[in-house]
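Session log. Operator J.P. requested a structure for one protein chain; no other inputs attached. Running the standard single-chain path with token output.
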Amino acid sequence: MADNALERLFSLFASADRAEALAGDLAEERAQRGWMWYWLHAARITFTLCRNRAAEAPLRVLALVLAGGVLFIAPALAGVAGVYLFPISALWVSWSVLSFFWWGGALWIGASLVAIAPHRGMPACAIAAVISAALLLSFGVTIDPQQFTRTDRMFFITALGTTVALLAGGAIAGAGGTTERRLTRPSG
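Structure written below.
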């Protein structure tokens, strides 16, 4: 089962044949080298495949990352408006609205980027997620721990969930494309 999941992960950044070969090679080595080696190399190969796919056309990937950022403006503003429109007595409602708009928007953007550019969309999603998480964490480090309120914690949890939703949207759209490629592959 892990081999199938790993093959699907690799196929987000490489052809189905190459993903199958890489996952198979790792599975063969897993028995000799162990699970830790297996997962570390799986992460390394995923990073390398993403980097190589992005390096093939860096300006296109950058344009997709910027387009994703521009597209996220509407759900981001809608979520923030939801926080300020509901009274403080219904705090869970406002955070639910924020989460719904941010996570839903990120899921939609990830799927849209992969649908627009099947070969470059997933690397763009990964780059946007890493940049967003890095900026968010660097901003969080600057806050004095004594002034880190419950609201701040909720904001950071919601924002970090947005990066996960972005990757999930790209993976869902990318997995659909992989299934189509497999169904249309000539049976030689």
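Operator note: The chain is about 85% helix and 0% strand.
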